[in-house]
Amino acid sequence: MSEIKNKDKSTRRDFLTTVTATVGAVGVGAAVMPVISQMNPDSSVKALASIEVDLSKVKEGQEITVLWRGKPVFIKRRTKEEIAKAQQVSLKDLKDPQDDKLRVKKGKDEWLVVLGVCTHLGCVPIGGKGDYNGWFCPCHGSHYDTSGRIRKGPAPTNLEIPQYEFVSNDKIKIG
Amino acid sequence: MNEQTTKLAKEKFEPVHTNKVGGSPFTGITGWIDNRLPIIRMFRHEYLDFQVPKSLSYFWSFGGILTICLVLLIVTGISLGMHYKPDANQAFDSVEKIMRDVNFGWLIRYAHMNLASFFFIAVYLHIFRGLYYGSYKEPRELMWLIGIVIFFLMMATAFLGYTLPWGQMSYWGATVITNLFSAVPVVGKFIVTWLWGDYAVGDAALNRFYVLHWLIAFLIVGVVVFHVIALHIVGSNNPSGIEPKDTRDTVSFSPFTTSKDLLAMLVFLLIFVAVMMYAPNYLGHPDNYIPANPMVTPAHIVPEWYFLPFYAILRSIPDKLMGVVAMVSSIAVLGLLPWLDFSKVRSSVFRPIWKQCVFLFVLDFFVLMYIGGAPAEGIYLVIGRIGTAFWFAFFFILAPLVSIIEKPLPMPTSIHEFEDWKKQGKIKTIKLFNK
Amino acid sequence: MKFNFFKSSSLFIFLFFMSFTNTSFSKEAHVDLLKTSWSFDGFFGKFDRASLQRGYQVYKEVCASCHSMKQLSYRNLGEQGGPEFTEAEVKAIASQYEVSDGPNAEGEMFTRKGKPSDKFKSPYSNENASRAANGGAYPPDMSVLVKARPGGADYIYSLLMGYEEKVPDNIKLEEGVYYNKYMPGNKIRMAKPLSEGSVSYSDGTKATQEQLSKDVVTFLTWAAEPHLEARKKLGFKSVIFLLILTILVYLVKKKIWLRVEPKV
């Protein structure tokens, strides 16, 4: 017999093997981590995660579109009528009830910043069209109002407001 | 009833039982699976209980090391492939993007390129083991031949992979090596244009090299499976060259050889990680950090170090076609060794003359490696030619000659007797790799 | 034929490493490079932040007029492991440059102020323009130049310091070509770029030729290897970890094999 069966499992040997296996597992985990991590957004993508938009040239009533994280963002400088219309809508009439005041920054309610992606299936709605003077999505006929809220059509929720803030009076940082 | 049906009626029919479910020593879910697909009992039989000579030295660990290298190359390769762009205008920049922007991209890239080098270090040591201990001899000839196929596939994969960063060496190395095919008589030029998909190495070549790099890498996995199956049929050789006869000669693969292989893998990994982290570009060439320029050829086109001996052989023959033939034959000739060396003794431990020949061959290998990196002129060319001549002489002259004239040293009758002789100091083995 | 195994194995190892000296074969005489101490050398190498910032200033004021660094973005100047300018400083640096963007709604390309996410602005739009402006010579992109030359940082430093006044008799210089001791072939199309006082350092350091050369080479080394510090740090941790694991596995292996050979 070339093997002496060691029936007596000394606790020292078990401990050593367990410690070794644990250290080994830690090593394998540490080695796997970069392989998983490399699939996360790289630093060039993360650098474009926030953008600054200069609003000084946007006139009243005008809407601009900027590209942010690969998607369009509509920035509209609303007229007084458009703001009034948006604020007067009763929450009962909304599929996704949300007060206009919650969709703009305090003291800056002339600026509406919404993600230009229809909440139904992701098409880009067209501005200045539709029954509610907001946006109209041609794919399946969703109508959004002057606050970007869904009024008619299959979309379930209002146009998303991205995270943004005013870094100066006429400049916002999105993301 | 006609003649045919009468004939059928008289025939005896063999009972058929294609349903082979059953026979599993396992119970529960394990048994359920194992009864239908016996991989669990196969695993136990082939990788746990498998009897392996107990005299194996660390030279036998390189198979496992090679497997680890292959797995890691594939894992890092897939990670790189998610970011690399195989377009002549974007390739170099995409590699830089990996190095700079991708999370741990620098680590994965350096790992992949240094693993390629270490893959070859391991394979050369693995082949050396085969040469020294006669692992190519009966009944392991086919396993040896499959190994040579793997080696050719490795070289193809490495060559293709090196073109991908699209540096100066990538481009010009690709140009030189693909141009070798023009040496083929009559159709050579058409083959080259066909390979390139263009009139020179360029975007068309790069794209297909990328695809072929992936393809051949996975082909290697397939051929390795056959290599290991063949191994499990004939069993491992061992430093004594004597086949195991009873359980005094063997140990079970697990935990004995597995723990030993694991240790060898870790030492190998340690050296690899040290090189990768502290000298990641040492084994490479600075010229490959210059973007490919079809108008400017580097002063010295050099392949990666692992190709240098064969590059030297290629350049030592003045005729283009014969140079290519010599280069390919210098590797293919390994395949003839089981028949050129017909000594009945396997291991060089007991072959005093063949042992020296093998060491001289290894020396020749390093000399040719040095020459391969030198300009192909003057004294370098002379030495290269002598080295090439010796290379082929080793196979065609020394192998058969030594088989005939050599008187082997007295041999033990079994592996366990070999182990006793070692302890008694009666025989010398390569101490560095002994347990 | 007697063969000593230890002698032969050491011979093989020696030959193996000697095989690599061939990568720097050249017909010309091999000149020893100037050696200086680099903070980033060695197992625990780090970049000197102040040196990197000065080096960037040298690049910007002297080299950038001819040499691009296309692989770098302005934001890299603020990232960890590099010059580590503040976010505000990086924004300020980027906005000094007018970069091309577009097309706009009219279909035209326009220029705008640079942002941190933009790549370094190149002095020329492509290699042909660069050659045309430099008498046919192409000032190479310097993003990975330190890795693209044998000798690396030492070579670039030597080259910058190697413009010797006395030209050897056997070397004839054409119009627009200068003598450099360390350039392979000894002829270089770039005039001596750095002399004492070429740049007035914003941190007040004395701008000797050595200082300028050292700082810009440190900067170029970082540019080629922005993750050098992380790599060496991780390298140290990995090697120690693997050493420990190897020792543990060695002990486990020995224990296991005692079952076969009770006497070690």
Brief digest:
The complex is a heterotrimer of chains A (175), B (435) and C (264). Chain A has helices at 11-37, 43-47, 80-88; strands at 51-54, 63-68, 71-77, 111-115, 126-127, 133-137, 142-145, 150-152, 164-168, 171-174. With 175 residues, chain A is an alpha+beta fold.
Can you tell me about this structure?
The complex is a heterotrimer of chains A (175), B (435) and C (264). Chain A is built from three helices and ten strands. In chain A, 23% of the residues lie in helices and 26% in strands. By secondary structure, chain A is α+β, with helices and mostly antiparallel strands. The model of chain A is unreliable at 1-6 (pLDDT under 50). With 435 residues, chain B is mainly α. Chain B has 17 helices and two strands. The longest helix of chain B has 32 residues, at 203-234. The model of chain B has no long low-confidence stretch (mean pLDDT 94). With 264 residues, chain C is mainly α. Helix content of chain C is 38%, strand content 5%. Chain C contains seven helices and four strands, in the order αααββααββαα. A two-stranded antiparallel sheet of chain C has the order 1-2. In chain C, strands 3-4 form a two-stranded antiparallel ribbon. In chain C, a hairpin with a 7-residue loop joins β3 and β4. In chain C, α2 crosses α6 and α5 packs antiparallel against α6. The two termini of chain C are 35 Å apart. Chains in contact: A-B, A-C, B-C. At the B-C interface, α5, α6, α11 and α15 of B face α1 and α7 of C.
Secondary structure layout:
The complex is a heterotrimer of chains A (175), B (435) and C (264).
Chain A: H1 11-37, H2 43-47, E1 51-54, E2 63-68, E3 71-77, H3 80-88, E4 111-115, E5 126-127, E6 133-137, E7 142-145, E8 150-152, E9 164-168, E10 171-174
Chain B: H1 3-10, H2 28-36, H3 39-48, E1 51-53, H4 62-81, H5 91-100, H6 105-133, H7 141-163, H8 168-179, H9 188-196, H10 203-234, E2 250-252, H11 253-278, H12 308-316, H13 320-332, H14 337-340, H15 352-372, H16 378-405, H17 415-423
Antiparallel strand pairs in B: 1-2
Helix pairs in contact in B: 4-6, 4-11, 5-6, 6-11, 7-8, 7-10, 12-13, 12-15, 12-16, 15-16
Chain C: H1 5-18, H2 49-61, H3 87-95, E1 98-101, E2 110-113, H4 127-133, H5 152-161, E3 178-179, E4 187-188, H6 209-224, H7 228-257
Antiparallel strand pairs in C: 1-2, 3-4
Helix pairs in contact in C: 2-6, 5-6
